Amino acid sequence: MSKNGYAIFMSMNSGKMKDRLPFRLTALGIPERLLPVVRLCVRQMEEDGVRGKALRRLFGRLAQEPGAFADHPVLGGLAGMLGGESKQGVAGSVREVPWRVWGEGLDPKAVQQLRDGCSLPVAVGGALMPDAHVGYGLPIGGVLAVDNAVIPYGVGMDIACRMKMSVFAVSPDLVDSHGDELARAIEQETCFGVGGQFRARRDHAVMREDWGFSPVTRRMQDTAWAQLGTSGAGNHFVEWGVLDVTQAMPGLAEGTYLALLSHSGSRGTGGEVAKHYSALAGRMHPELPRALGHLAWLGLDTDEGREYWDAMELMGRYSAANHAIIHAAVAGHLGLNPLTSIENHHNFAWKETFDGRRVIVHRKGATPAGAGFFGIIPGTMVDPAFVVEGLGNPMSLNSAAHGAGRVMSRKEALKRFRRSDVEHVLRERGVRLLSGGLDEAPMAYKNIRDVMAAQADLVRIRGTFWPRIVKMAK
């Protein structure tokens, strides 16, 4: 459990927690609505050795003086719900919409962005992941559950940005013995950058779906087809590496494998969808102050909201198609067939049920981490990515970080680093970079191991992927 006591989150999915409490909430003056959080806190305190009468006395003091527990590593969030304050200020919004932070030393502006999201009339709860940094509307790493609405900039610009890993039952030593062939496959079968497209178009069934229901997807369909199977700029990549599976998972035994990993999304079409519907949402909510303008929402009981939702879902299928084409082309170039594949996405909204209530969960730069859900959390061009299994922690809305997260802007990275700085790190880590910008220097990111340690209660590491041959936008 996070040691950040200043942010709060109400557990809304406690159906599996049937523990009998050693006291009655009403006797202590704790509202029944907080029962899921109390159960979780009791279980953690009992694991720390606090039981019986001592536990009852502790929760009795908490109910009477919640402010005294604001910085408690286990009870801080519950204290905020009961009216306490921490050294960081009031715990939550005036509406008492619950939210919670994972990680230490996060950018206060990112924290404020999540607080703003939790102040919306449609908000139900939120969470902030340890890779968090500032974004438009919601911060990157922001998770927000709302009631019957969707926030276009709560989803983000690169809708359904995705991770995909293909694992091959061949020797991982190929990255050394046949490195040139692996590199050539990436160079010839991928395309990167803003506006990038293949001379000969790739094909996929997603392009024969209905794109005419929205003025944006209708207008962008031809561009989307031209960019099918390509990757964007920024932190998007395709890379070969070595996967160490430390704990067997479905379809994959313990061992060391050659693997192909990619990260990209819905290209310029997704960005156009985001801009169009965010502007539309803003016009529909002129009452929002300027600071909250990027958090304007569309009701799912409106034509506009349903249209955006359908466009978002289409972008999800389009993004998945891009990855399917990339992996088929690169592997096919070498005559390889994958043993299995793993994929997950972020920058999306999901219809989920918590405590019997249907909500819309936005994960902007955050990834699903429901119990038993497998996904990939990447580091940098030289740092490992992790194959993880979700633990289904309801306090994070079943979410986890989507990557390492930046510690500085792209502009700052370009000012601070030189090509020689990156080349030194690449040589030190044994990574071959085919192309990539200085704005993606590994030093511009947080330490991925610190991020993983901060979310040990959200995901379990099942495998570690070490990048060896990397291609990004120039």
Strand content: 15-25%
Helical proportion? 25-40%
Q: How many strand elements? A: 19
So what's the overall shape? globular
CATH C-level of the largest domain: Alpha Beta
Describe this structure in words.
This protein is α+β, with helices and mostly antiparallel strands. The chain folds into two domains: 91 residues, no CATH class; 255 residues, tRNA-splicing ligase RtcB, CATH 3.90.1860. It is 32% helix and 23% strand. It has 14 helices and 19 strands. Strands 7, 8, 9, 11, 15, 16, 18 and 19 form an eight-stranded mixed sheet that branches. It has a five-stranded mixed sheet with strand order 3-4-5-13-12. A two-stranded antiparallel ribbon has the order 1-2. Helix 8 runs antiparallel to helix 11 and helix 9 runs antiparallel to helix 10. It starts with 24 loop residues before the first helix and ends with a strand.
Descriptive terms for the model:
alpha+beta, tRNA-splicing ligase RtcB, 2 domains, eight-stranded mixed sheet, five-stranded mixed sheet
What's a quick, concise take on this entry?
The chain has 474 residues and is of the alpha+beta class. The protein is built from 14 helices and 19 strands.
Lay out the secondary structure:
Elements: H1 25-28, H2 35-47, H3 52-64, H4 76-81, E1 85-86, E2 89-90, E3 99-101, H5 108-117, E4 123-133, E5 140-146, E6 149-150, H6 152-155, E7 162-168, H7 174-177, H8 179-189, H9 215-226, E8 237-245, E9 255-264, H10 267-284, E10 298-299, H11 303-334, E11 340-345, E12 348-354, E13 357-364, E14 366-368, E15 374-377, E16 385-390, E17 399-401, H12 410-416, H13 419-429, E18 432-435, H14 448-454, E19 459-472
Parallel strand pairs: 3-4, 18-19
Antiparallel strand pairs: 1-2, 4-5, 5-13, 6-10, 7-9, 7-11, 8-9, 8-19, 12-13, 14-17, 15-16, 16-19
Helix pairs in contact: 8-11, 9-10, 10-11
